[in-house]
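Margin note: ligand = NJP.
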Amino acid sequence: MIKDKVVVITGASSGIGEATAKLLARRGAKVVLGARRDDRLKQIVAEIGAQGGQAAFRELDVTSQSDNDAIINLAKERFGGVDVIFLNAGIMPNSQLSALKTDDWHQMVDVNIKGVLNGVAAVLPTFTAKKSGQVITTSSVAGLKAYPGGAVYGGTKWFVRDFMEVLRMESAQEGTNIRTATIYPAAVNTELLNAISDKATAETMQKVYDQYGISPERIAEIVAFAIDAPDDTTINEFTVGPANQPW
Ligand code: NJP
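Resulting structure:
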């Protein structure tokens, strides 16, 4: 059931996170939005409120453990607890390895890997204590298949896959009833390509997205589906993308 669940969403200021916040709020969830651009969050929360939904926001840099702890506390203060965390914040500044964009490499590790670790560390004690909860992450088809230009991005998303599978196994072993879902999207029209600093890579990827990209609403529907499954059921992995995208 989605209605009345408290859902914390990271990377909620645009793209998949924004679409998911709006969809879940329409279906009766209480959503707590985090990202760095808090002006955008403020606007999205106002839109949700204007349509009768319940939402709160907080500036969040997922690379900071204290920011992650604070957004969980906000969910508890405003809505009395937390039921789901959607760890969705991510960046994809792709390039060939030979370009040696080492700052981009490290930033992807910090946001896409450590951001997920920080979010889980912030929420796990609560989920463990109440013996329920759900962790949903946005990995990528790049976490399933290698491609040139995506060595580091893909590596961070492979990490998410492994981490989420072990989280699922351990929570089952420990009887904490924590449900997991990992989403592997292909081309989705969001702001993701804006962070690509390598010109040739940006142009190549833009062409792919122009040809194939689908709406982030499609991914929001998957998140809603995962949350809506009965509490005794984990639907663990979703690969989702444009019907006409061959790779
Ligand atoms: O992209 P975009 P998506 N701390 O750029 C936030 C994965 N994915 O919706 O902080 C906190 O519109 C950023 O907010 P801000 C992808 O890897 C996508 O496509 O204000 N938040 C924004 O809200 C990512 O994991 C595709 O700049 C941080 C959000 O992240 C997820 O989908 C394909 C942050 C990014 O929104 C959502 O990305 C695929 C930080 N340090 C996987 N840094 C696709 N679009 O095709 C960034 O396979 N954010």
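The pocket of NJP is lined by residues 10-17, 35-37, 60-63, 88-92, 111, 138, 140-142, 185, 187-188, 190-192, 216 (CB under 6 Å).
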